[in-house]
Automatic annotation (TrEMBL):
Domain of life: Eukaryota
UniProt remark on domains: The PHD-type zinc finger mediates the binding to H3K4me3.
Family from the record: Belongs to the Alfin family.
Keyword set includes Metal-binding: yes
Pfam families (UniProt xref): Alfin
Gene Ontology CC annotation, any one: nucleus
One of the GO biological process terms: chromatin organization
Function noted in UniProt: Histone-binding component that specifically recognizes H3 tails trimethylated on 'Lys-4' (H3K4me3), which mark transcription start sites of virtually all active genes.
Native source species: Populus alba
Subcellular location: Nucleus
Taxonomic lineage from the root: Eukaryota, Viridiplantae, Streptophyta, Embryophyta, Tracheophyta
Composition-biased stretches (Low complexity): 150-165
Name of the protein: PHD finger protein ALFIN-LIKE
């Protein structure tokens, strides 16, 4: 859990870079490293959390012992639901909680370093331009891209047929 403990981003760009690194690690856990992630989330173990780090690494571990923790904590007990639901549904649940945690960490840094309204809005816009972990894990990103291309193809075909008249 201390892979990101020494690093404190202070600007909007640094906070965004921190978020992108943490996000990449969590996406890796829920996609390319999914078998390893699944094995580490043993329901027989105590309350486990998925942590993403700024260096694009991830780990499943117990929550921080310090109260309150230095950073907001990710969802607690992700391992308990693992065997009680379909794997894809469980991964989607972990993904949506991971998205919420990333926002909490980003805005924690924003508050801690005194971001004003403009900085917070800029940070949120930068974050919002990325697909969510949930969208990536569920394949919604691909569906949205297909829908956008079919809508633009449909509208360009429509404008071509209108211009012939």
């Amino acid at each position: 859990m201390d892979a990101g403990a020494q690093y404190n981003p202070r600007t909007v760009e640094e906070v965004f870079r921190d978020l992108k690194g943490r996000r990449a690690g969590m996406i890796k856990a829920l996609t390319t490293d999914v078998e390893e992630f699944y094995q580490q989330c043993d329901p027989e173990k105590e309350n486990l959390c998925l942590y993403g780090f700024p260096n694009e690494q991830w780990e499943v571990n117990l929550p921080a012992e310090e109260v309150p923790p230095e950073l907001p904590e990710p969802a607690l007990g992700i391992n308990f639901a693992r065997d009680g639901m379909q794997e894809k549904d469980w991964l989607s649940l972990v993904a949506v909680h991971s998205d919420a945690w990333l926002l909490a960490v980003a805005f924690y840094f924003g508050s801690r370093f005194g971001f004003d309204k403009t900085d917070r809005k800029r940070l949120f816009t930068m974050i919002n331009d990325l697909p969510t972990i949930f969208e990536i894990v569920t394949g919604a990103v691909k569906k949205q891209a297909k829908e956008k291309s079919s809508v633009s193809n449909h509208s360009s075909n429509k404008s071509k047929s209108n211009s012939k008249g």
